[in-house]
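Re: Re: ligand-bound prediction request (bumping)

Still looking for help on this. To restate: I need the protein modeled with S-adenosylmethionine bound, output as structure tokens. Inputs repeated here so nobody has to scroll up.
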Amino acid sequence: MPSNAEKTEHYFTAHPKSKPKFGLIHANLRGKPFKFLTASGVFSKKRVDLGTELLVKAMVLPESGYVLDVGCGYGAIGIVAASLNPKLHVVMVDVNERAVKLAKHNIKLNHIHNAEVRRGYLYKPVEGMLFNCILSNPPVSAGLATVKAIITEAPKHMVEKARLQMVLKSKIGGKRLQQIFEETFGNCTVLARKSGYRILTAEKG
Ligand SMILES: C[S@@+](CC[C@H](N)C(=O)[O-])C[C@H]1O[C@@H](n2cnc3c(N)ncnc32)[C@H](O)[C@@H]1O
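Reply:
Sorry for the wait, this slipped through. Here it is.
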């Protein structure tokens, strides 16, 4: 039976109180095997989410430089990005302290040496940093305002020609969020679609 804390906690709770129940996921992503320690109180604890999988499959990474994974959860997107190109340095950010602990653990578990995890709200932990690419499977359940902020505040944290790449469920605010991409960047492309998800991307500058 789930405890009361488990019943009321969202995956985006900053300090989950429920006792963590751990799990280990094995996933093959971009042709490589990965292991992720997951736990109750974090997003998609039983398997890599379909939207996450689609973003990982479609994401276009820079040849070098800094990559940001906003709302990293237990770390699948940032860890795969780091593993694909050792010339990148990946910064992963999440507000949920349990997710941050898991992502740190998963970096080690997958022998990644070019990624780090910071805890905090949206872009606060990377204030003053500029990225060559921003990736996100955003916390839609936290409200569209949070997702909107990830889009509208992104350009301040991007170098010219950098790309924001985000997975969204077409049915949940998809049209409005695509408009926000257009208003913010003056451009927006659908990079991939599958099973009701789409990957939106926009270039700065
Ligand atoms: C949809 S989940 C995606 C997790 C992970 N990237 C994945 O694909 O499995 C969104 C994540 O955003 C985090 N989050 C929610 N609000 C946030 C905020 N204000 N700042 C940073 N992270 C936040 C949640 O804790 C959650 O881990």
